[in-house]
Design a protein that fits this description.
single chain; 145 residues; alpha/beta; Rossmann fold; 4 helices; 5 strands; globular
Length: 145
């Protein structure tokens, strides 16, 4: 896929792998929607992209919420005209204490973010990508996943 001229949404884009992916895609010519709960980190990612000559926009989004997931994807279309790339990158681990001592609430949150949000985002993004003849969906996984 030629990256130049595409539009991508990166979840968990305010730090780590998400930030690195957003910056790299922007360097290659993609416009980027950075989606995250961390507003300060998201603003920093956008600033870094724009200072390097790229285009980016931040959306505060909880990827487990239908309304937020829909809004982050619709933002790509409203701000940049299309959606070509979705990087489902937002994720968490159970932390300490680990299994089996971790409380069930923590495991439920891991499943909501690391699994259900990926399914939600993919299901919402696919029709938007089909409008442009296709696209790419990337899912980051980890030991927690």
């Amino acid at each position: 896929m030629e990256i130049k001229g595409t539009v991508g949404v990166i979840t968990g884009g305010s730090s780590g792998i998400g930030r690195a992916t957003a910056e790299r895609l922007a360097k290659e010519g993609a416009a980027i929607v950075v989606a995250d709960l961390d507003e300060a980190g998201g603003a920093e990612t956008v600033k870094r992209i724009e200072s390097a000559g790229g285009r980016a926009f931040f959306v505060k989004a909880d990827v487990t919420r239908l309304e937020d997931a829909r809004r982050m994807l619709d933002t790509a279309v409203s701000k940049f005209g299309r959606l070509d790339i979705l990087h489902n990158n937002a994720g968490i681990g159970v932390g300490a204490p680990g299994f089996p001592e971790a409380p069930p609430e923590r495991w439920h949150l891991v499943i909501e973010i690391d699994l259900q949000a990926v399914i939600l985002g993919t299901g919402l993004a696919a029709p938007l990508m089909q409008n442009n003849g296709g696209g790419v969906i990337i899912n980051t996984a980890s030991m927690a996943g």
